[in-house]
Amino acid sequence: MAPGDDHIFGPDACVDLCSAVSDMSMLLTRGYPLHGTLKLVGDRYDLTDRQRLAVRRCSCSDAQRQSRQLRRVDAKALKGECLIIDGFNLLITVEAALSGAAVFIGRDGCYRDLSGIHGSYRRVTETPQAFAIIADYLKAAGVGYVKWLFDRPVSNSGKLKVMVTGLAEANGWPWEVQVVDNPDNELIAADDIVSTSDSDVIDRCAQWFNLCEEVVNICKQSDGSGAFVVDLSRRFDDC
After folding, report:
1. Phi, psi angles (nearest 5°) of residue 55
2. Per-residue 3-state assignment (H helix, E strand, C coil) for the chain
3. Total domain count for the chain?
4. Looking at CB atoms within 10 Å, which of 99, 181, 192, 205 has the fewest?
5. pLDDT digits over 122-148, tens only?
6. What is the 3-state secondary structure (H, E, C) of 17-30?
7. By the 8 A CB rule, do 23 and 41 touch?
8. Is this prediction's pTM over 0.90?
9. How far apart are CA 237 and CA 239, in angstroms?
């Protein structure tokens, strides 16, 4: 957890954060530009940079929310099917949850963290546990085949591929691991179900599954001191 996150994302702060997400989503619905809207709302509630990033990642227009929900599938749809996973998108959020960092629930129901790989990925203590939890969930859901996509431009993606392939072979997981130039393009073009919380992808893919929600909730249940989940979607049903 970043220093101060327990305060700026604590219960008292979330009153304004939920209002900020609601206001920003309303303005996006009316066609206001993203960056100008974020500044307007951030200044209105006197938000820090990290709070503004959380509000941005949790907001979406009404049209985006409806479209995303229409193409979202439930766990029953996974049985016997191929699932294509946006590798870094899922892994980094699950690692964050296991380390106690803040993970946010957005208006579209997606779970997102504030981490960024910034062109480089480094394995952390939580990495093997993250893959084990993900594997257990996918097995229980009856997924037939899993294809992981990792970004080639991110340094150490090749080493991660070797590690994940080794884990899959050792445990008999039906996984394929690919390092590709642009996972987003492949996820958007895929006929199979995809797993991601990337807004651009879920706005354009054929069908998606909210795997991150399922896995982060398992992290939270398995260790009460683990996942710090901040729900910024709570006001929307009342708006």
Report:
1. -65, -40
2. CCCCHHHHCCHHHHHHHHHHHHHHHHHHHCCCCHHHHHHHHHHHCCCCHHHHHHHHHHCCCHHHHHHHHHCEECHHHHECCEEEEEHHHHHHHHHHHHHCCEEEECCCCCEEECCCCCCECCCCCCHHHHHHHHHHHHHHHCECEEEEEEECCCECHHHHHHHHHHHHHHHCCCEEEEEECCHHHHHHHCCCEEECCCHHHHCCCCCEECHHHHHHHHHHHHCCCCCEEEECCCCHHHC
3. 1
4. 181
5. 899 999 999 999 999 999 999 999 999
6. HHHHHHHHHHHHHC
7. yes
8. yes
9. 6
Strand partners, 79: 143
Token pair recorded at residue 237: 């049903």
Contact between 85 and 195 under an 8 Å Cβ cutoff? The reply is yes
Q: What is the pLDDT of residues 68-92, one digit of tens each?
A: 999 999 999 999 999 999 999 999 9
Cβ neighbours for 21, distance < 8 A, ≥ 6 positions apart: 55, 58, 59, 106, 107, 232, 233, 235
Which amino acid would we find at residue 128?
P
Buried b (16+ CB within 10 A) or exposed e, 81-104: bbbbbbbbbbbbbbbbbbbbbbbb
